[in-house]
Write a structure and sequence with these properties.
The protein has 137 residues and is mainly alpha-helical. The chain has one domain. It contains 6 helices and 2 strands; from the N terminus they run H-H-H-H-E-E-H-H. The protein has a two-stranded antiparallel sheet with strand order 1-2. A hairpin with a 6-residue loop joins strand 1 and strand 2. The radius of gyration is 16 Å and the shape is elongated. It starts with 7 loop residues before the first helix and ends with a helix.
Length: 137
């Protein structure tokens, strides 16, 4: 029996759960959750475009910053390669997005989910609740 792909709402809920503290504190250990997170993290990469390692690092660093992550881009890039989200040439000089892997996890329509916006929304909500709590008599 084949699992159905998650909806955009399912993915956003999963991200809200992962980012509930207002930051990505570690990579999830559950394979499905990790795959979904890594697929979302590829959102800044373009299909069929060769990337130098530095370019991949820049894209991943920006994504990690947007989710206020405590992990580094090297860890994220290595996991993406290990789990097939990024392909690397034999000599390691170029990387390519494995869009088939991403689409298998997210489907075509869910690829453009902005995890940074979700993080910002969570942080704003937490700050509003703190402010409301402080103003209580």
């Amino acid at each position: 029996m084949q699992e159905s792909r998650p909806t955009r709402g399912d993915i956003e809920t999963l991200l809200r759960n992962l980012l509930q503290t207002g930051a990505l504190q570690s990579l999830p250990t559950h394979p499905h959750v990790l795959d979904t997170l890594l697929a979302v993290a590829t959102g800044g990469l373009v299909r069929q475009r060769p990337y130098a390692e530095r370019e991949v690092n820049d894209v991943l660093s920006a994504w990690l910053e947007s989710v206020r992550a405590t992990i580094d881009h090297v860890t994220l890039r290595r996991r993406m390669v290990d789990l097939g989200f990024l392909k690397r040439t034999r000599d390691g000089s170029r990387y390519y997005l494995n869009f088939g892997r991403v689409a298998a996890i997210l489907g075509d329509g869910a690829v453009a989910i902005d995890a940074g916006a979700i993080t910002d929304d969570i942080v704003r909500g937490r700050e509003a609740r703190k402010k409301t709590y402080r103003l209580r008599p």
